[in-house]
Structure formats: structure tokens, C-alpha cells
Amino acid sequence: TPLTTSIDGKACAERVLDEVADDVARLADEGIIPGLAVILVGEDPASQVYVRNKIRKAEAVGIRSLEYRFDDTLPQAELLALIARLNDDPEVNGILVQLPLPANIDEASVIQAILPAKDVDGFHRQNAGGLWQGLPSLAPCTPTGCLRLLRETCGELAGKHAVVIGRSNIVGKPMAALLLDADCTVSLLHSKSRDAAALCRQADIIVAAVGRPGMVDANWLKPGAVVIDVGINRIESETGGERRTRLVGDVDFAAASQVASAITPVPGGVGPMTIAYLMQNTVTATRLQRH
Ligand code: GUN
């Protein structure tokens, strides 16, 4: 029987959202209601679910949301024109463009068009660079949520060896920056890393963000390690002639539970934290723009 803690991301996200709701109430005393614009281009089914959840949580904490939906024929120039209008609109404090974008639109150009002070995803180069220099910046929501889970699970982070697997701009790279800022010793692994398993076995903390189901196995873990699984992989399975999809992470949860001291489940681990920190970032952005 595993002595492992399953880290409850839903409960932690509720605590973050309670904090955000308090912040929103204090802004309301000043006559300020934060506004979040959410833009979805195309029909990606996962993106539709994420956007719906973001809008629902915004309303739950008292943030005004504006939803913009387009089909995948939207010209890039029109998307850039919308962002320019939202940049200039004082009622809009946060702008989120759900990724991925259709192939005819250049993601980097769209991200750089967002005013850095309204970039609640923290993807703009000014925020990404500021994060690495320890300057006040909007940081990406998913790694910020992971850091909160680690702080509540591990206690002191200083001096611990954290291994991050995956070097995306959305998760891996900002996660490494945040852990470094928390005084961890950080190893950033990726698809070309030699002997990833041996490096992982030296880790006190593992954050897996590669999008490969079951890639991190029990024999990759030091006993007692804390594991954060950012992967969201849809698996088609067939049981008794019934086809269904289920969500799994990058970590073999059942096997890892025999070795790790704590691990996030998928779903119910990191996912809810991402949305909670989007709301927190919207409040932070609103404060940055105040007066
Ligand atoms: N697609 C996958 N993750 C994210 C995210 O955190 N923000 C946005 N905008 N799109 C995403």
C-alpha cells in the first residue's frame, strides 16, 4: 500500500480562488472591476473546454469576462486589429489568446502584439525576460500553479534538486526560472537529454511537461520524491467493445505512487491551478494598470 499523498489540485485551486475573490472585492471598494478578454480561434475541442472553464471561473470570482470566438478562417490582420483595440480599452485588464492558433496565424506575432501589462498568460517576451531577471512580471499560469503546489507540499524549497522535463515556453522554461528563483538547483531536461532516467533519480522534485503518456516510470524516481505531472494526454481505450477516451499524464501514476512521497493526479492536479492563477494574474494586471 502506497504511503503517497495524491496532491489535491482542486482543493488548492479553491484556496487560490478564494484569495482572488477577496482581492476582487477590495478592488470593487475602489470602483474597479477587473476585465478579462478571452479569444478563441478555431474549433479545437480541448481549447473549447479550457476557454469555457476560464470564463466560468472568472465570473465566479467577480471578474468581468469578454469572449471572442472566430472560426479558423480569421485573417491574422483581423486578430491583430482586435488585440490593438483591447490594448486600448481601459475596461480590459487582461488579454488571453487560447493556443494553439490555426496554422495560417503566426503565434509569436500575436503574442508580441499583446500589451505586456495585459499579458495574463505571461508569454510576451518582456514578461518572459523579466521572469528570468527577477523583475516584477506576469508569469505563466501553469508553472506558477505548480510552484504553489510544491510550496504547500515540500515546505522549504531552497537547495532541493528539481528536474523539469520539457522545455516549452509555456511550461518548462518558466518553471525552471521560478524554481531557480525559489533557490532550487534546477536541471532542465528535454528530448535530446542523455540518460534522463539517471538524472531524474537524483531529483527531490520532478515536474513532467512533455506530453508523452507514462514517460516517467517508477524506476525514474528517488524514493520520497515529489512529482508534479503537467501532462494532459487523451488516450483512446476500448473496454468490453466500448470505445472511450480518458486523460492520463506524463507519469505512470499507479507505479510512481509506490515510490514518490507525493504526486499530482491527472485530472485534478495541475489543471485547476492553471485557471486559478489566470484569475490571480488578471487581478495583478488590473493593479498594474490602476490609477
Ligand atoms: N494552451 C495550452 N496551455 C495554454 C495556456 O496556458 N494559455 C493559453 N492561452 N493557451 C494554452
Automatic annotation (TrEMBL):
Residue ranges of domain Tetrahydrofolate dehydrogenase/cyclohydrolase catalytic in the record: 7-121
This enzyme's EC code(s): 1.5.1.5, 3.5.4.9
Domain Tetrahydrofolate dehydrogenase/cyclohydrolase NAD(P)-binding: 140-288
Catalytic activity: (6R)-5,10-methylene-5,6,7,8-tetrahydrofolate + NADP(+) = (6R)-5,10-methenyltetrahydrofolate + NADPH; (6R)-5,10-methenyltetrahydrofolate + H2O = (6R)-10-formyltetrahydrofolate + H(+)
InterPro entries: Aminoacid_DH-like_N_sf (IPR046346), NAD(P)-bd_dom_sf (IPR036291), THF_DH/CycHdrlase (IPR000672), THF_DH/CycHdrlase_cat_dom (IPR020630), THF_DH/CycHdrlase_CS (IPR020867), THF_DH/CycHdrlase_NAD-bd_dom (IPR020631)
Binding site for NADP(+): 166-168, 232
One Pfam family this sequence matches: THF_DHG_CYH_C
Pathway assigned to this chain's UniProt record: One-carbon metabolism; tetrahydrofolate interconversion
SUPFAM superfamilies: Aminoacid dehydrogenase-like, N-terminal domain, NAD(P)-binding Rossmann-fold domains
Keywords: Amino-acid biosynthesis, Histidine biosynthesis, Hydrolase, Methionine biosynthesis, Multifunctional enzyme, NADP, One-carbon metabolism, Oxidoreductase, Purine biosynthesis
Transmembrane segments: none
General function of this protein: Catalyzes the oxidation of 5,10-methylenetetrahydrofolate to 5,10-methenyltetrahydrofolate and then the hydrolysis of 5,10-methenyltetrahydrofolate to 10-formyltetrahydrofolate.
Assembly: Homodimer.
Family of this protein: Belongs to the tetrahydrofolate dehydrogenase/cyclohydrolase family.
Identification of the protein by name: Bifunctional protein FolD
Organism lineage string: Bacteria, Pseudomonadati, Pseudomonadota, Gammaproteobacteria, Oceanospirillales
